[in-house]
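Archive entry: two folds, one per protein. Generate the first.
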Amino acid sequence: QVQLVESGGGLVQPGGSLRLSCVASRSILSVDVMGWYRQAPGKLREFVARMTSGGIPTYADSVKGRFTISRDNDKNTVYLQMSSLKPEDTAVYYCNAVLFRPPSGYWGQGTQVTVSS
């Protein structure tokens, strides 16, 4: 099992930056994929970014070049650095952990990001 706790959300103006953090209850090197998803009001949850245990990142086209996923193995923490934020980035951001054996997935409680002037 993996417990995930997100933090770092808040209100930011368009063009601003925020860094989200996700602390895992176990070594993230033992987690096959760590990722970030988001859900805006009235919309389905969507993929934002992920990183494999080998350190390979993948991004949604909508955030490519603006968001960066990274990790600190010693702190069991995954980060999402968000820059050049747009109002359409407003959503609840969720941390996700995926294990391949046995196949299982885990979610954090979410953190609200609001981009508005």
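Generate the second and append.
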Amino acid sequence: QVQLQESGPGLVKPSQTLSLTCTVAGGSITTNSWMWIRQSPGKGLQWVGSISGSAETHYNPSLKSRTSISRATSKNQFTLQLSSVTPEDTAMYYCVRWVWGKGYDYWGQGTQVTVSS
């Protein structure tokens, strides 16, 4: 059983950098791919970006200039940084595992991030 747990501040001021960490148990982040997905109030799910088992990163083009995903293999964690946030970045953020042939199979419970002064 793979478990993912998001952590980070729930409130971020506009123009600051949002930083979230996903801690993974029961599966190594050096295999498969690991995603950040968010859902804003009243909107659908939006893929933010991903990091593969070989540490290759991909980002949503609409967020690419502000997004960075990194990992710490010794801690089995990966981290999202989203800079210059605005209230439009307010959302529930999820970390998710993606497996070839299966798709998204394990999700964290999500963490609410609000951007407000």
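Annotation attached to the second fold: The chain is about 0% helix and 55% strand. The mean pLDDT is 97.
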